[in-house]
Amino acid sequence: MSENKMKRIGVLTSGGDSPGMNTAIRAVVRAALDNDIEVVGIRRGYSGLIEGETVELTAKSVSEVIARGGTFLCTARSTKFKTEEGVLEAVESCKKLGLDGLVVIGGDGSFRGASDLSKQGVPCLCIPGTIDNDISCTEYTIGFDTAVNTCVDCIDKIRDTMQSHNRCSIVEVMGRHAGYIALNAGIATGAMAILIPEVPIDIEKDVIVRMRAAMESGRHHFIIVVAEGVGNIDALAEKIKNEVGIETKTTVLGHIQRGGSPTATDRVWASRLGYEAVKLLLQGIGDRVVGVKNGEVVNYDIQEALKMTKSIDKEMYKMAYVVSTAGLERYKKI
Ligand code: ADP
Questions:
Q1: What are the Cα distances from residue 218, in Å, to 81, 224, 324, 325, 332?
Q2: Contact in structure between 101 and 290 (CB atoms under 8 Å)
Q3: CA 20 from centre of chain
């Protein structure tokens, strides 16, 4: 890494936690120390920054965190920081703490805050950390891979009992506005239907009729994966029970998806992105987000990044339907 004027930087986690945030903090700390930069850990996101709630981080203080879920710095949602007064207090706090820059690990909301701070003279580098993978400027967010694998593990277990009892199971996974977890977990568990906010679905045609056809072809157990943003899974269960004639159970996976030891993929990307964030700060670059594009580490201006859009891969969505039941439907048509 090149010569720099940075002597001391801060690192914080903000918004919803995700597995791999600890791994990213570790990478930031170690990359900074390698360049003789001191690192201050800020507890509870922007709330802790305003209140000066900090911990000095050494190489040793981040040992043993690589495999731990959650964030040992804790995270918070600060309403005060969303105000101009809050941002100015945070800037004062950075001055008092002697911070030359800040690494922020979080989602879009946290990036907006980091942009405000950068504009006030505190160079910030953002790292995408959220299980939802709903950050437009990057193909991948830290925690997504672990969350999908947790869902797959849970749905496989549900599938065992559905199979034994010839039942249908509707599993709700996280994703209020984004269906990435549902789509990937649904494909990986052979779900016969995947309901996500991005794709309108005809319940009659795409679920009920297909289930009836599949049942006539001899299939008697089904998994349906639904992103939480889609709506009422109990009403869907009732409809399936009445119109297809199969006992249907619902399971909401909930916060189990946010915890757990990060997968190798999450650990590797968290390390790469943490290292890259420090590398940019060292070059005097701030107001940027690091991310992944075509499998490479990239970075963008925060405001540019916030304006970007990304959409679900419709071909992938179509494929999920084909590989889950096409054979059975064809059998029915013959
Ligand atoms: P995430 O970073 O996961 O999207 P939030 O949206 O809850 O999570 O944001 C985390 C924190 O970032 C908030 O508590 C707030 O302090 C800050 N933040 C969120 N939105 C803004 C905004 N529009 N402007 C400035 N700061 C924001």
A1: 58, 18, 14, 12, 10
A2: no
A3: 10
Strand partners, 102: 10, 124
- What separation in Å is there between the alpha carbon of 14 and the centre of ligand 1? 8
* pLDDT for the residue 125: 98
Output 78-84 pairs: Cβ under 8 A, ≥24 positions apart. 78/45, 78/46, 78/47, 78/50, 80/46, 80/47, 80/50, 81/46, 81/47, 81/49, 81/50, 81/113, 82/113
Distance CA 43, CA 49 (A): 7
Contact 74, 13 (CB under 8 A): yes
Instruction: State the closest ligand 1 atom to the C-alpha of 80, by its place in the atom list counted from 1.
Output: 16
Residue 231 CB coordination number (10 Å): 13
| Choice from 17, 81, 174 to test ligand 1 binding pocket (greatest atom count within 8 A of CB) | 81
- List pLDDT tens digits, range 168-202: 999 999 999 999 999 999 999 999 999 999 999 89
Give the active site residues.
132
Contact assessment for residue 73 and residue 11, using Cβ atoms and an 8 Å cutoff = yes
Which of 78, 28, 23 lies closest to 268, judged by CA?
23
Output the CA–CA distances (angstroms, integers) from residue 203 to 132, 180, 207, 237, in the order listed.
24, 20, 5, 11
Confidence band, pLDDT 50/70/90 cuts, at residue 217: confident
- What is the rounded average pLDDT of the residues 29-52? 97
Using CA atoms, how far apart are residues 292 and 174, in angstroms rounded to an integer?
22
pTM as predicted: 0.94
Mean of the pLDDT values across residues 35-58?
97
